[in-house]
Amino acid sequence: MRRVRRRWRVQPYLFLLPSLVFLTTFTYYPILFSLRQSLYQASATVARPTFIGLWNYANLWADPIFGQVLENSLEFLAGTVPVTVGLALLLALLLNRPHFLTTVFRTAFFYPTLLPLVGAAAIWLFVYTPGYGLMDVYLRGLTGGGVNWLGSAHLALPAVMILTIWKNAGYYMLFYLAGLQTIPAELFEAGRLEGATWSQQFRAITWPLLGPTTLFVVLIASINAFQSVDQIWLMTGGGPDNRTNLPTWGRPPP
């Protein structure tokens, strides 16, 4: 009996061992190694890095470009996550109803997610191109003048935000559709019998029961907002004047 109990105590850790080895090799060790390397000053002209402690971090906080990057990141996060999540929820609510065109619209809204981010950025580069881009053509027809979206320090970051929202809204819509389909229809039927309006049902039934889905979507959207690289590299290169420079891009344009 002692041997059996000992085996049952060890067996769960054996099941976890492959995952632990994978995480240690590709996650924990690189993090610890990077933290250790950040305490040294390295140069191509010096054979051995010099230990300087937290001096790299002190220089980082004193760097004005780093401050601009943090500001850009917060603006990008605040400008994309709420709008993308809200749009995804709205699309899911509209497309959760049975209709003969529901599948067509679901496919159409999800299609941008299937595009590689490089391809999506190339499409929006054409939209924003001054002179003959789609945005400029319509603006010239309405106002008589165009706008250099990606060349303006005030408009470049919002222009990249629009691409991000367009690209991700359909992806997060699927999570909300899955969440809506797990809500029992009896709850809505009971609400209708009690005379509850659509907005009252949404506040009392739909929104609370979608809480776990919303938390998951917000976390994923926030992580993706801090990992934006491809569209920045293709569309702006971090400029103009570092106004679209984000942490993962990590360098000012040449």
UniProtKB/TrEMBL annotation:
Main localization category: membrane
Lineage, uppermost ranks: Bacteria, Bacillati, Candidatus Sysuimicrobiota, Candidatus Sysuimicrobiia, Candidatus Sysuimicrobiales
Subcellular localization(s) per the UniProt record: Cell membrane
Keywords: Cell membrane, Membrane, Transmembrane, Transmembrane helix, Transport
Keyword Hydrolase among record annotations: no
Family per record: Belongs to the binding-protein-dependent transport system permease family.
Transmembrane segments: 12-31, 76-96, 108-127, 147-166, 205-226
InterPro entries assigned: ABC_transporter_permease, MetI-like, MetI-like_sf
Pfam families: BPD_transp_1
Protein name: Sugar ABC transporter permease
Domain ABC transmembrane type-1: 70-254
GO cellular component annotations of the record: plasma membrane
Membrane topology according to the record: Multi-pass membrane protein
Single GO BP term: transmembrane transport
